[in-house]
Amino acid sequence: DADVTQTPRNRITKTGKRIMLECSQTKGHDRMYWYRQDPGLGLQLIYYSFDVKDINKGEISDGYSVSRQAQAKFSLSLESAIPNQTALYFCATSQVGQETQYFGPGTRLLVL
Amino acid sequence: GQQLNQSPQSMFIQEGEDVSMNCTSSSIFNTWLWYKQDPGEGPVLLIALYKAGELTSNGRLTAQFGITRKDSFLNISASIPSDVGIYFCAGQGSGGSNYKLTFGKGTLLTVNP
Question: What local confidence, expressed as pLDDT, does residue B2 receive?
Answer without folding.
Answer: 66
